[in-house]
Amino acid sequence: MLALAPAALSHESAIIAAGGDAAGLNAKENGPIQIVVDAKRNLVRPSGVSLHYSRHLSDRILSHTNPPRVRLEHAVLDVAGEATSDFAAIACLSDVVQARLTTPDRLLAALAERDRTGRRKFIETVLIDVRDGACSVLEHRYLIDVERAHGLPRAVRQSPTMVGRRGYRDVEYREWGLIVELDGRLHHDSASARDADLERDLDAAVFADKRSLRLGLGQVVDKSCRTAFKVGRVLSGLGWPGSVKSCGPQCAMEECR
Questions:
Q1: Phi, psi (deg, nearest 5) at residue 74
Q2: 152 and which of 8, 113, 147, 194 could share a cystine (Cβ 3.0–4.6 Å)?
Q3: CA-CA-CA-CA dihedral for 86, 92, 94, 98, to nearest 10
Q4: pLDDT digits (tens, 9 = 90+) for 196-247
Q5: What is the C-alpha to C-alpha distance for residues 207 and 224, in angstroms, rounded to an integer?
Q6: Confidence band (pLDDT; 50, 70, 90) for 186?
Q7: Is residue 116 packed enough to be buried (19+ CB in 10 Å), middle (13-18) or exposed (0-12)?
Q8: Using an 8 Å Cβ cutoff, are 46 and 4 in contact?
Q9: What pTM was computed for the model?
């Protein structure tokens, strides 16, 4: 960076410097360092560096850090806005909030300061959902692709367990006594984690008379329509008076009937 000064870490490099997870950002261990410089400069990119130009360098960097870096919120918005997929954008936004590096409100405030950001409306919607409790990629996909798209009732998110092992329920349909837990592979691969999950399900059934469904990436991402139909069937059996709706002409829900 000394050869490019004044300059600052940006994008994934700035997030990692602020305590972010390199694996969650798909940042390669020997990948290029992300550096931002003023837009008026015209530099030759050194080897091992990805060079970005910005008209807002003085407003968005933390010059007192060593090395200087773009403010976390703006680095996150840069990565999410340039992500190769909506899934990757959601992951970036939700991961930094889960890690308590920032908050949805801070990210929304930073978004409001920016004239141009890729996926702007999508990012704003995701941040509002994260603020309202959809804390992970999987939880957001369940909310959008399973629950909302198919007319399931609105659930309570991140509610405390209240009985047995302490923790929070991913999704809870309180009126009908149904809990939906969403298991991403990252946090549910070990035997001890799996045991803790099953213990929570057992506690819910024994001490709170609640039924638990445990869904993974396949059910939420690859089979969202069929999953919505099945969750709706369970809710109907528990007294929900509504009905599951098709999400469109290509909805796979009809395959379950």
A1: -75, -35
A2: 147
A3: 160
A4: 667 777 777 776 678 999 898 789 988 999 999 999 999 999 999 999 999 9
A5: 30
A6: very low
A7: exposed
A8: yes
A9: 0.70
Cβ burial of 127 (10 Å; 0-12, 13-18, 19+) is buried
Average pLDDT over residues 98-108: 94
For residue 190, the model assigns a pLDDT of: 54
Please tell me whether residue 244 adopts helix, strand or coil conformation. coil
- For the record, the structure tokens of 107 come out as 């990210």
Backbone torsion region of residue 194, taken as left when φ is above 0, otherwise alpha when ψ lies between -120 and 50, otherwise beta: alpha
Q: What is the DSSP letter of 108?
A: H
DSSP 4: G
Residue ranges covered by each domain of the chain: 2-131, 137-256
Residue with tokens 């969650």: 24
User: How far, in Å, CA of 186 to CA of 95, rounded?
Assistant: 12
At CB < 8 A and 24+ separation, what contacts does 236-245 make? 238/173, 238/176, 238/177, 238/178, 238/211, 239/175, 239/176, 240/153, 240/173, 240/175, 240/176, 242/151, 242/152, 242/153, 243/151, 244/150, 244/151, 244/152, 245/150, 245/151
pLDDT at 74 over 60: yes
Mean of the pLDDT values across residues 20-46?
81
User: How many CB atoms are closer than 10 A to CB 38?
Assistant: 14
Strand partners, 9: 35, 69
Give SS3 for 54.
strand
Cβ pair 72, 18 in contact under 8 A: yes
Distance (Å, rounded) from C-alpha 189 to C-alpha 166? 20
CA nearest neighbour of 195 among 156, 220, 165, 225:
165
